[in-house]
Amino acid sequence: MLTEELAARFATIALGHVEREYPNKPGHVLAGPGDARTPAALHPIFHGSLDWHSCVHGYWMLARLLRRFPAMAPAPAIRALFDRQLVPDKVAGECAYLATPTARGFERPYGWGWLLKLAAELRHHPAQPWFRDLQPLAAVFVERFRDFLPRATYPVRVGTHPNTAFGLRLAADFAEAVEDAALLELLRGTAERWYGEDRDCPAWGEPSGDDFLSSALIEAECLRRLLPAERFLPWFDRFLPGLAEGRPATLFRPAAVSDRSDGKIAHLDGLNLSRAWCWRALAAALPAADPRRGRMLEAAERHLAAGLPHVAGDYMGEHWLASFATLALDG
Q1: Contact 304, 328 (CB under 8 A)
Q2: Is the four-CA dihedral 202, 204, 205, 206 of positive or negative sign?
Q3: Is 198 within the bounds of a domain?
Q4: From the CB of residue 93, how many other CB atoms can be counted at a distance below 10 Å?
Q5: Residue 190, CB half-sphere, CA atoms under 13 Å: how many?
Q6: Would residue 279 count as lying in a domain?
């Protein structure tokens, strides 16, 4: 489980990279020579951690760990970071970037979901202005979900950033935290439209060479989060009917990582951690006597054991993996 010692370690890792501007992999479209600007000029807050979305979920992790362990050693540094960065003028700078025509699809849907999950977590720090000050940016992404989801005829089922189930899953936490019933219903209705008829998932394509999400398990976790239990459980029975026998076998085996200095191959450490998160959450949704629970929790432990030792060591993984470890341990 997540301990204060482990939380302090993860927080120290994130504090070392959320303001580290370089190396940087921008998701930036240039419409002209004037658009060639530094990461910090483009993104006053989220210019660290190699890329925008990793910086956002680094902030989420810091907010989450601060709430869980407010007296841990890195807590003053986290508060100082948020006081310095999560301020109205810098939020306005992030919003200004998104207002440009070339940024319409920026970070869709992965970064959208993570920004809203960060906002939801900041709501649990009511004595601070951070949630209030971030609201203009959160509102931009709420509107983007509202505009995009009705037009998105098909889901994206890959194991990387474009995965739509993951975006819906994170956005659901925000919708619930701010009691936005209309947004929650849009997310739920979209999930049912995209995934409601899925059954007997073979998971034969997992893992792909740069997955950090299980397309099968994150779909199930999305439906678990958005549907009431009386509708989720029959769907889950149809979607993965062989779990009691350990099928599909590929979902129960942790991925092997051959080169952690390769950013794409290092994604597979994240796959092990995100699978652990999903296995734990899905097992907890089943009745206590369900024979699938034991297999699922054992799979979660195997995946945790494979992923946790590698949250630091090479920057290609270090700039983001602790966030996924936090999801797995404390999700």
Answers
A1: yes
A2: positive
A3: no
A4: 16
A5: 28
A6: no
